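Need tokens for this chain, all 481 residues.
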Amino acid sequence: MTADLVINNGIVVTPDAAFPASVAIKDEKILAVGAPDAMPSASETLDASGLHILPGAIDVHVHFRDPGYPNKEDWESGTAAAAFGGVTTVFDMPNTIPATGNGTILAEKHAIAASKAHVDFGLYGLLGEDTIDNVPELIAGGVIGFKLYMGNTFGKIPSPSTGAMLEAFEVVAETGKRISLHAETNSIMERRQTRLTQAGRHEPLAHLDSRPAVVAVEAVSRACILAEWTGARIHILHISSADELRPLREAKARGVDVTGETCPQYLFLSADDYARFSGVIRVNPPVREKNNQEPIFAALKDGIIDMIATDHAPHTPEEKTRSDIWAVDCGFPGVETQMPAMLTAVNAGRMSISDYVRWSAFNPARHWGLYPRKGAIQPGADADLALVDLAREWTIDDAKIQSRSKISPWHGRKVKGLPVHTIVRGRFVMRDRTLVSGTKGWGRSVHTIQQMPAPAIRNAGKTMRAVTGGIRPSPSKENAA
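Here are the structure tokens for all 481 residues:
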């Protein structure tokens, strides 16, 4: 048998070890991992001397803005940025225009992504007050999971009432899919922002004051209680504070199927950076006080937080530099800079390279039903690889990133560690720091390979469907009630 590609002289990294080995690839999959003399002949070989071979990162939280905001980002530019960041699979959020709330819109978005993506992808379906009835068609159309906004963010997706949220959890629990949650309590934030504005607060730190950590503590607690009651699987997005770790830890101890992510901005930026970056640093939830960083690092290490994501949320420079913080769009790009930022921490001894692989690839694949096809370097897995130079020192330059958004708080940051080659299903999409021509459209949806465990439904006899006989009122009558 002849392999398509054999990679020699690299150091293969798994969640448990790092060791010298060769990797053989054939027909988009890993054929063999082992000693060089055990590898088959190959059509092509690559000398990976001095490089670590990582499973490509899986970023379960990006906003590629397509359709609706192509001036900010589209699937071509966003996935090019992912490729340069060693990211081989992305999950895109539903707050586009139109929002991904029914089967027709989902099909249109699938077509857009499939025609442009350089890397593999999953699409979230929107779970809200008005889309509960659409869950079956979204499942049939191919979603990786659902997104529910408990608090306001870019796109102004309405937050459902707690009653609607419970019913939404009941419906999705039956499917076994995971629900990702923007876990901030909307009523607290809107009330505080109104009062801050009335008090004349328009500077960057006013945004932090409008969203104290209690908004996350309350939302995470409430979401975990509803998940425990229904058996729904949930995922807490962008964990930003030490305070929300307690309800997350307690829920896991009770057996709730809840996972959590944090992002580089909550590990490496703090309230001390607001004066330097002004509105550029505005993101939801906000970058918080420095004393939150160490507890979040510790939660990653002890497994309370399961994975690293980015909340890649691009905007134009004009939208990020307005003088009134309330007029500044929330978010900034990160899918390209996540791996270098985290590898810098590896080099500094904050974690091992195996820890990083566990948080960036293995755990996302496992918790989202993609393992062992994704997140692993072993025979039979998709050949999704990031070959990184851990010793490469460089400085992040917003002008040189692939994203259309050329403004971020990462600009000027010195990092150590750089993806040199990125391979998606056996094909180079980024090689020697250059985007490979002809890879636009190579990415495919991973919903076709997702295998979530069987649902573990609870209180099935007390669901809205059970107690009403499956009858739902018309929207006008429901609102009147």
